C-alpha cells in the first residue's frame, strides 16, 4: 500500500511539474484564411531510431511475461509498469501507441490510400502476439495509459459483476466509432479524445486535461476505468488473450478456495468454481444457445437499423459537418434548443477565408451522406457484440477452483500477494 501511495504521489508530481511550464510544447497554429483542422494521423517526430522503440517494447513485453508467469512477482510488474510510463509515456510522449495504431490499421483496411508504417504495424501486432501466448502482459506492465491508472488505484473497490458486464460493452462501441471516424474521413477519434496524451505531451485542450484528471481520480477507487470501460485496443487484447497458450494462474499449486483472490482482484477477473449442487442440464443449455443463435440475425439487424437512425448524430463527428452546423446556428444567433449562441473562433476563422457558406453546406451534406451505410455497419457490429455476450453468459463451464478469466484478467499479479499457497511456496 505504501508503495502505491508513493507511486501515485510521483505521478501527480510529474503531471504538475510538466504543466507548470509557461507554454505548450505544441502551440496551436494561427489560421490566416480557410479553416482547417490540424492533421492527427501521425505521431510527433522523434529522433529515437525505430529499432530502439521496437526493442524496448519487445524487452518490456518479455520481462512482464517473465514477471507474471515465472517469477510471479507483483513488485516486478509494478516496477516495469513505472518504467514503461516514464519511457513510452513521458519520454516518447505516448507515441507510437498500440491503442492509437488501431486507427492506422482501419485506414489501411478501408483503402483510403494511406500506407501502414512498419513501426506502427509492429506496435499494433506485437502486444497481440504476446497476448496469444502469455495473456494481457501489455496491459500489466507496458502500456503507459494503464500504468498511470494502476499507480492511482490505491483504494480499489469491487464493481458489481452485472454493472461490469454492461459497462464492458463500451470499449466495443468506442472501437466501432474509431472505425466510423476513419471510414468517413472524420479523423482519428482515439487520438483526438485520448485523456492522457495531454499529460504526456505537456499540451492539450482544457477539457481533455480535465477528463484525464477525472479518470485518474476515479481510478483511485474504480481501478483502471479507461482500460476496462473505454480502451478500444483492449477489445482486441481480450480476443487474443482468451486463446492464450500460457496465462497467469491464481495459485502456483492446488487451490485451497480461501477466496482471498476474489477480494484482491478489482477487475472482476476471477471466476468462481461451479457449485457442487448446481444442476447443469446439457439439454437446457443447448436449448438456450439454440434460441440465441436463432435470434442473433435479428439482433444484428436491429443494431444495423438503430445505427442507420443515428447517422445524422454520428455525422457531427466530421469536422465539416460540425462547422456547417455551427455556422448555421451562429447565423441565426440561436442553437437548436433555442438558446442564444455566441460566435466561435472556428466560425470567425472560416468567415475570414475565401470559401462561401453555400460551399461549406454542400460539402457538409456530402460528408453526412457517407455516414448512413457506415453507421448501419457500426450498429450491426454492436448487435453482434451483444449477441455474442449473451451467448457467452449462457454457456456454463464446470470449474473446480477459482480461476483467472483469460479475457478480462490484466495479469497485474495483485492476487499473487494474497494467495496463501503462493506464500507457502
Task: Please write out the topology.
Layout: H1 2-19, H2 50-69, H3 74-91, H4 98-109, H5 118-134, H6 137-141, H7 144-152, H8 161-167, H9 170-183, H10 189-192, H11 197-201, H12 206-218, H13 225-229, H14 232-241, H15 260-264, E1 270-271, H16 282-309, H17 311-314, H18 319-332, H19 345-351, H20 357-369, H21 371-394, E2 403-404, H22 420-424
Antiparallel strand pairs: 1-2
Low-confidence sequence ranges: 9-33, 37-42
Could you estimate the helical fraction of the residues in percent?
55-70%
Order of helices and strands: HHHHHHHHHHHHHHHEHHHHHHEH
Strands, count: 2
Report what the structure shows.
With 425 residues, the chain is an all-alpha fold. A two-stranded antiparallel ribbon has the order 1-2. About 7% of the residues have low confidence.
What labels would you give this structure?
425 residues, 22 helices, mainly alpha
Summary, kept brief:
The chain is mainly α. The chain contains 22 helices and two strands.
Amino acid at each position: 500500500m505504501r508503495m502505491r501511495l508513493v507511486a501515485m504521489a510521483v505521478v501527480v508530481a510529474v503531471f504538475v511539474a510538466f504543466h507548470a511550464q509557461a507554454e505548450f510544447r505544441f502551440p496551436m497554429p494561427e489560421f490566416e484564411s480557410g479553416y482547417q483542422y490540424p492533421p492527427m494521423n501521425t505521431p510527433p517526430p522523434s529522433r529515437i531510431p525505430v529499432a530502439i522503440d521496437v526493442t524496448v517494447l519487445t524487452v518490456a513485453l518479455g520481462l512482464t511475461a517473465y514477471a507474471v508467469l515465472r517469477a510471479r512477482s507483483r513488485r516486478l510488474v509494478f516496477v516495469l509498469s513505472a518504467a514503461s510510463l516514464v519511457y513510452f509515456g513521458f519520454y516518447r510522449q505516448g507515441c507510437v501507441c498500440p491503442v492509437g495504431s488501431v486507427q492506422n490499421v482501419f485506414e489501411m483496411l478501408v483503402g483510403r490510400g494511406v500506407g501502414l508504417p512498419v513501426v506502427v504495424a509492429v506496435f499494433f501486432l506485437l502486444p497481440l502476439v504476446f497476448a496469444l501466448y502469455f495473456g494481457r502482459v501489455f496491459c500489466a506492465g507496458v502500456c503507459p495509459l494503464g500504468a498511470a491508472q494502476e499507480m492511482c488505484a490505491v483504494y480499489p473497490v469491487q464493481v458489481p459483476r452485472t454493472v461490469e458486464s454492461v459497462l464492458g460493452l463500451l470499449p466495443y462501441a468506442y472501437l466501432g466509432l474509431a472505425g466510423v471516424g476513419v471510414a468517413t474521413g472524420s479523423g482519428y477519434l482515439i487520438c483526438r479524445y485520448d485523456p492522457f496524451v495531454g499529460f504526456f505531451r505537456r499540451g492539450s485542450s482544457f477539457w481533455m486535461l480535465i477528463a484525464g484528471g477525472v479518470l485518474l481520480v476515479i481510478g483511485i477507487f474504480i481501478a483502471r476505468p479507461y482500460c476496462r470501460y473505454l480502451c478500444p485496443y483492449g477489445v482486441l487484447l481480450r480476443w487474443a488473450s482468451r486463446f492464450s497458450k500460457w496465462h497467469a494462474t491464481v495459485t502456483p499449486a492446488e487451490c485451497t478456495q480461501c477466496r482471498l483472490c476474489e477480494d484482491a482482484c478489482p477487475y472482476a477477473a476471477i471466476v468462481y468454481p461451479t457449485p457442487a449442487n448446481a444442476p447443469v442440464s446439457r439439454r437446457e443449455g443447448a436449448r438456450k444457445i439454440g434460441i440465441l443463435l436463432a435470434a442473433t440475425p435479428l439482433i444484428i439487424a436491429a443494431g444495423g437499423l438503430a445505427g442507420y437512425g443515428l447517422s445524422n448524430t454520428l455525422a457531427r463527428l466530421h469536422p465539416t459537418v460540425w462547422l456547417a452546423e455551427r455556422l448555421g446556428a451562429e447565423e441565426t444567433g440561436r442553437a437548436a434548443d433555442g438558446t442564444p449562441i455566441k460566435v466561435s473562433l472556428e466560425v470567425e476563422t472560416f468567415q475570414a477565408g475565401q470559401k462561401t457558406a453555400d460551399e461549406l453546406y454542400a460539402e457538409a451534406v456530402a460528408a453526412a451522406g457517407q455516414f448512413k451505410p457506415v453507421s448501419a455497419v457500426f450498429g450491426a457490429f454492436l448487435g453482434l457484440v451483444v449477441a455474442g455476450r449473451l451467448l457467452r453468459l449462457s454457456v456454463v463451464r464446470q470449474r473446480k477452483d477459482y480461476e483467472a478469466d483469460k479475457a478480462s484478467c490484466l495479469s497485474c499479479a495483485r492476487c499473487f500477494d494474497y494467495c496463501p499457497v503462493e506464500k507457502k511456496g
